[in-house]
Design brief:
alpha/beta, Uracil-DNA Glycosylase, subunit E, two-stranded antiparallel ribbon, about 40% helix, globular, metal-binding
């Protein structure tokens, strides 16, 4: 069961200290089945902070964000859109992998995080924002977008366009752009079309910094 141990980040902007503290977070029940906490990675001086949904199977095992199939697609899209991933800070709204087992009990199948889990993990995301202080927050998918912009935010209505953050996080999110999660591109019936639209969104996001 979730408990209060490690559920609140320490009062620091040191990302290494935050990462170490997050490794012991029991703020929701996801830590019980996940291999480890998957904290964000990247440069503390990043102008762009990228937020995904949650780690997947590959990320859970590696302890790093966006290293699986969706991460490889994201890296390719970043390159085409003119982003250097080494200059970014990449993280997830939820830091533990939520999954169910297949019928044979072997394959781990991704499960969308619930609102309770997103809210439980939100202090860690806010701590990362305080540490990095980006000029732009790029939100990948509805879960990521709603984690900062509120549960009423609709990705389909505001995809690829700059949006204002709510007052409670406005000082941490000076500008935000939301688009689909790269895993949605992988699942799309016309992957080429979905990928082109995704890259276009990334390019539009980049222009907000110029």
């Amino acid at each position: 069961m979730p408990d209060s141990r490690g559920a609140e980040p320490p009062d620091t902007t040191d990302l290494d200290r935050l990462r170490s503290a997050a490794s012991g977070c029991h703020g929701c029940a996801l830590y019980q089945d996940a291999t480890q906490t998957v904290f964000g990675e990247g440069t503390p001086e990043a102008k762009i902070l990228v937020v995904g949904e949650q780690p997947g199977d590959k990320e859970d095992l590696a302890g790093e964000p966006f290293v699986g199939p969706a991460g490889k697609l994201l890296d390719r899209a970043f390159e085409e859109a003119g982003f250097d991933r080494r200059s970014l800070y990449v993280t997830n709204a939820v830091k533990h992998f939520k999954f169910k087992r297949d019928e044979r009990g072997k394959r781990r199948i991704h499960q969308k995080p619930g609102r309770t889990e997103v809210v439980a993990c939100r202090p860690w995301l806010l701590a990362e924002l305080r540490a990095v202080r980006p000029d732009l927050v790029l939100l990948l998918g509805a879960t990521a977008a709603q984690s900062l912009l509120g549960p009423k935010f609709r990705l389909t209505a505001h995809r690829g366009e700059p949006v204002d953050a709510p007052d409670d996080v406005a000082d941490l999110v000076p500008s935000a752009v939301a688009t689909v999660h790269p895993s949605a591109v992988l699942r799309a019936p016309d992957r080429d079309e979905a990928y082109a639209a995704f890259v276009a969104d990334l390019k539009a996001a980049g222009k907000t910094l110029k």
